[in-house]
Write a structure and sequence with these properties.
This protein has about 325 residues and is mainly α. It contains 14 helices and no strands. This is Transporter.
Length: about 325
């Protein structure tokens, strides 16, 4: 694999997992609730994200599209491009914020969520203002650390139960898998679009997406196995992996808190920088002031999620429907 393929694989895996995957709440909600059907949903979602990314990013590469705005301009025309771009950016910033807030509310017992949120923002800021190379390197290190962490939890399981397919034998697992795919595809698209128009070798892009898809599938399947093994203990938790870490590892709470703070901060910085860079190029803005405005928006959404926990579902649903709308429109345009 060449350097470009490795970069794409790392960026794809980091963005597809999302900045707050370590807590396990999204996996619990979208997959583990549905037992073995959820495992099938993981396979379909990972393949779907990989295939859609290949198709849409290939389209962007051919048409030299480097931002969400340019993509909307190509698909919807000038009349709708600006509005759709602003709405999508707002929901993505909101998603980063509410996920940081939700994590902060339960991460460190006995410490105010506001202080935990400040720690998370400090990590994010530290990487944001070191610029791209730090963010990329941090993303790669976080992926390796996360994989080792989940691998260690998996090895500590005496056995992994495989629920009967008669459990949750309905269409809800497929609907949740599609919603998960739509949300995380949008995250992936926002991060990888700046590369799509610049990559000189299409085969590097395909190879990077293939390796990234395999890595993401491995993460999700490991997480599913760990969560299924502790279903009765963690089914109502906002941070199920934290509870499992405390049970299985000496000093598990501290290890999990450090990993969650660093991973959440680094991967949030990855998304924010990827959103900001095309805007600065298009409008000839300075990067630092724009990042500060984005951080302010993220902070407001984070505080909102702490004060009003139901806002997490509202913002995440908005981002999900943005991704779903984009997928449906792109597939429809390909057929016409």
């Amino acid at each position: 694999m060449d350097k470009v393929a490795w970069q794409i694989a790392i960026l794809f895996a980091g963005s597809a997992l999302g900045g707050h995957y370590l807590g396990g709440y999204e996996w619990l909600r979208f997959f583990t609730y549905f037992g073995s059907w959820g495992t099938i949903g993981i396979v379909l979602a990972s393949l779907g994200i990989g295939w859609l990314s290949l198709q849409l990013l290939g389209f962007c590469h051919r048409h030299h599209i480097r931002s969400l705005y340019e993509l909307y301009l190509r698909l919807f025309g000038e009349a709708f491009a600006s509005s759709l771009s602003v709405i999508t950016h707002l929901f993505l910033l909101g998603y980063v914020g509410v996920m940081l807030g939700q994590q902060s509310a339960s991460l460190i017992a006995g410490l105010s969520p506001i202080w935990v949120l400040l720690l998370s923002l400090i990590v994010t800021i530290s990487f944001l203002f070191k610029r791209w190379q730090w963010i990329f390197t941090g993303t790669g290190i976080c992926l390796v650390a996360g994989l080792l962490f989940f691998g260690l939890l998996f090895l500590r399981q005496p056995h992994v139960p495989i629920p009967n397919l008669g459990y949750q034998m309905n269409g809800n697992w497929l609907i949740h898998a599609v919603f998960f795919l739509a949300l995380h595809f949008l995250l992936t698209l926002a991060v990888l679009l700046p590369f799509a128009g610049r990559a000189s070798q299409p085969q590097s892009f395909r190879l990077g997406l293939g390796v990234g898809t395999v890595a993401v599938s491995l993460f999700w399947l490991l997480g599913q196995a760990v969560l299924l093994s502790h279903w009765h203990d963690i089914h109502a938790s906002l941070l199920p992996v934290k509870l499992i870490s405390v049970q299985l590892l000496s000093g598990g709470e501290l290890v999990f808190a450090l990993l969650a703070l660093i991973q959440g901060g680094v991967l949030s910085a990855l998304l924010l920088y990827s959103l900001a860079h095309p805007v600065t190029e298009r409008h000839q803005l300075q990067m630092a002031p724009l990042l500060l405005v984005m951080l302010l928006a993220v902070s407001l959404f984070a505080v909102l999620s702490i004060v009003l926990p139901w806002s997490v579902s509202v913002v995440a649903s908005g981002a999900t429907y943005c991704g779903l709308f984009l997928i449906v429109w792109f597939v429809w345009k390909r057929q016409t």
